[in-house]
Sequence to fold (512 residues):
Amino acid sequence: MTAPKVALLGMILESNRFARPATEEDFRSLTWLEGAALLDGARSATPALAAEFAAFVRAMDATGPWHPVPCTLAASHPAGPVARDVFDQISGRITDQLIAHGPFDAVYICNHGAMVAEHSHDPDGELMQRVRAAIGAGPIIVSTLDLHANMSDQMVKACDVIVGYRTNPHVDMFERGEDAAFSLRRCLASGRRPKIAFKKLPIVPASVTLLTAEAPYGDLINFGQQRQAELGGAILNVSDFGNFVFSDTPNNGLSVVVTARDDPDVAEALASEIADKAWSMLEGFVRNLTSVEKAVALACDPERPPVIFSDAGDNPGGGGSGRTTELLAALHAIGAKNILYGSFCDPDLAIEAHQIGAGGRFTAKFNRNSGDERWEKWDQPFQAAAKVLALHDGAVVGERGITKGRQLSLGPCAALDLDGIRVVVISDRSQTADPVFFHMLGLDVGTATCVVVKSRGHFRAGFAAWFAPDQVYEVDTAGLTSPVLDRWPFEFLPRPCLPLDPETTWSDADHG
Ligand SMILES: [Zn+2]
Fold:
């Protein structure tokens, strides 16, 4: 095949069941690109769209002629379930484009894999099935998914190759996009049809236990990569998806997805082997957090080394509002000094700081409009005397970790000094996974002795140059991403499951 014709598309949303629904505006304000603008966005020197999408396009460009057909890529920050009309609108545009521009040799789908819709527990699978129905049985469908995907039978049936992130923090998005392109090139060159095997385990780990730099999850992923290497070219991809527990769907659970070059038995055997290995590692998928009281005491301890705190209950990267005040208020009440705190999402406060100007003093009112239906119950008002230290328009390029080299649009931003606590206020609901959130406002992470971030785990990659793993504390704050699972009214998780139901059992022979 000299120049394969490949459609490019995706709908990216990680849904927290307990967060407010994702609207059309949530997609429009982050990524909504079609046609030539989509292809141009992927080839930009500092892409603003999903890194794996950009990488897929570049890897296809680099490996020979092809005929890309850019359809639609829509992405939202993590939020609640997507409204049905929004899902229908995006998936409808995509299928119309496929029907208008087909036939194709292949389709690349760039999804997250943990989307929930008001009408469906599995809109990712539904979109993939609609794509398959639009293009027919012949073309290869290759899909990239986030490590937190909630894998379903529908997704596996619709796709030919599935490539999941292998790192958490997700610093390998670019490499996985390349993998998807390389696998597609191999399939098209060989004419062989890949086969996928899929195993689901009844364990729904919270994200804090899914770090890949440590056991057990890192060991599991390494094991899969090692077995793939040992099997030579028989396996195209091994992905171990950790699940996103807050989606609260029947498809939650740690899952193993193996794509074989063409032999279903090889895929099945390896998936079973990895699933057994995962089940043998169960005890590792639990974690103790640091209480707010202990964190505040630590912050005020003059003898300690520099530390970084994760405000774990309020991670915008998991659907959190980015404006809970519990930890900020506790630090302020005790008079903590020399704290860098980022980032509080409060457009009203950011705009007021811009009006006052750098150097100005005022009473900073956080969450002044709380009570509005879009506010969560944890988004309590908080106010303190403040000085405006610095201002920024929020257009920056990421420095380190998951957003390195990517364009970010954080909206009007300000640094406020609350008598020793320097708070970054942003206008876009983003997690503080990159030191650029501080550096853009002249706040130096390198000389800080206590940094607090609204991020669950991705900040580890961005701040690793200054904070070793034993200087990182996950603080047990309240909010939409509190990883203490028995606090949540889960309705749809497959039960029994670990760690919620200690009596849970599993064997591949029973459930494979
Ligand atoms: Zn993820």
Notes: Residues 146-148, 170 surround zinc ion (CB under 6 Å).
